[in-house]
Design brief:
Blueprint: H1 11-23, E1 26-27, H2 28-37, H3 43-46, H4 59-62, H5 64-80, E2 87-92, H6 98-110, H7 112-117, E3 118-123, H8 127-136, E4 144-147, E5 157-163, E6 172-177, E7 180-188, E8 194-202, E9 220-223, H9 225-241, E10 243-252, E11 262-265, E12 268-270, E13 280-282, E14 285-286, H10 287-296, E15 300-306, H11 307-314, H12 316-324, H13 329-343, E16 354-361
Parallel strand pairs: 2-3, 2-5, 3-4, 5-10, 10-14
Antiparallel strand pairs: 1-7, 6-7, 6-9, 7-8, 10-16, 11-12, 11-13, 15-16
């Protein structure tokens, strides 16, 4: 007997269907935004996404070593900037506060003056996650303030980290149809299911990378004005009084074509239209576009590289060896596996898929990035 496909019955799915019936097909960017942030049924409003009981595990949850390496990088950046005081240590989308906790522990040990002279600013809109972060960071609570956006962070030199932020910012998708790239939309199929279809908006060719005219019909190009806007906002903040921003996410280092829209549900891939509001929705980040945006904003590109190279260059293997010295075999194996997962290549590992971008004002060289030629 043929098995019927699983019906989509999520509350947000029904809400989106009604919106499509009333207003017509919906852009991918609007669908993306509703899936994550709808005030009633959005994924981040209703779910605990992090950890083994959630839908995905972020790098800070894999091992304390990840946050420690970020702390090492920030200490070096602070020194290269000339030991400014005060420092606004800022994280956008801090999850459960795990990475900031690991960063602060390292900063307090390696650079007590930086720890003393810094205030910690967490950009987080979820009241539920703010409480989780409060509990995680209780040992540092006198230093911490929460904000709804970066522009609320007080004036002053800033060291900013955004881990897996940009993948959750909506994208637009365009499909090659003849000589043009036409916007991809979400509409209703014959069986009343949500389906992808072709809309009417045509992308200005100036936004397309080279080679677009040779792409086959059906080729998808992703473009995110919202990501550019967030990147520009971060750069404007850096330009006020100086600083460095570190951006970590999965994606590609060169602008290219392809469909990277994906949903995650209980640590497995899920069709993007199957469970709106129940599955996490993301797409790969175009790091070349973020770098171009930063340069256009007048901020210096410090470097961009794969996460594995970044972590190895900062000494993750030495740190794992130090933590495992004298410990039992199980602990040592756990640390080895954590390093492999964070810095290694291949399926289930983050070292190649994830990229790290650093931008600074004023321009400076920061290890482990290679010095940029003038």
């Amino acid at each position: 007997m043929k098995r019927e496909p699983e019906a989509m019955t999520t509350p947000l799915g029904e809400k989106i269907k009604n919106l499509v019936r009333i207003n017509g097909p919906m852009s991918v960017t609007d669908y993306f935004a509703l899936c994550l942030s709808d005030p009633e049924f959005g994924y981040y409003r209703t779910h605990e996404p992090f950890g083994t009981s959630g839908d995905f595990i972020t790098a800070p949850e894999v091992s304390q070593i990840f946050g420690e390496m970020i702390g090492v990088f920030l200490v070096n950046a602070w020194k290269r900037h000339g030991l400014p005081n005060p420092v606004r240590l800022t994280e956008i989308g801090p999850g459960r506060g795990t990475m900031m906790s690991d960063m602060l522990r390292v900063i307090a040990k390696l650079a007590p003056d930086l720890y003393r002279d810094s205030t910690v600013h967490l950009v987080e809109t979820s009241p539920r996650l703010r409480q989780v972060q409060h509990d995680t960071l209780v040992d540092h609570i006198d230093k911490i303030a929460w904000h709804d956006s970066v522009d609320q962070v007080p004036d002053g030199f800033i060291l900013l980290v955004a881990n897996e932020l940009f993948d959750a910012i909506p994208i637009r998708q365009f499909v090659k149809v003849g000589a043009h790239f036409v916007e991809r939309v979400v509409s209703l199929g014959e069986d009343n299911d949500l389906i992808f279809s072709i809309g009417t908006a045509v992308l200005d060719p100036s936004f397309l990378p080279q080679g677009s005219e040779t792409m086959a019909d059906g080729t998808i190009y992703e473009f995110s004005p919202a990501r550019r806007a967030v990147m520009d906002m971060l750069c404007q903040r850096l330009k006020q009084e100086g600083g460095t921003a570190l951006i970590i996410d999965y994606g590609h280092m060169a602008t290219s074509f392809g469909d990277t829209l994906q949903a995650l549900r209980a640590h497995n891939y899920d069709p993007p239209l199957a469970h709106p509001g129940v599955a996490d929705l993301t797409s790969h980040v175009d790091f070349e576009d973020l770098a171009r945006t930063a340069i256009s904003a007048g901020v210096s590109l410090t470097g961009c590289m794969r996460q594995g190279d970044f972590l190895v260059g900062l000494g993750i293997k030495d740190r794992a060896g130090s933590l495992g010295r004298g410990k039992d075999a199980a602990t040592q194996n756990m640390l080895i596996e954590a390093v492999n997962r964070l810095a290694g290549a291949g399926e289930g590992r983050m070292g190649e898929l994830f990229k790290v971008l650093a931008v600074s004002t004023p321009a400076l060289s920061l290890a482990p990035f290679r010095p940029l030629s003038s």
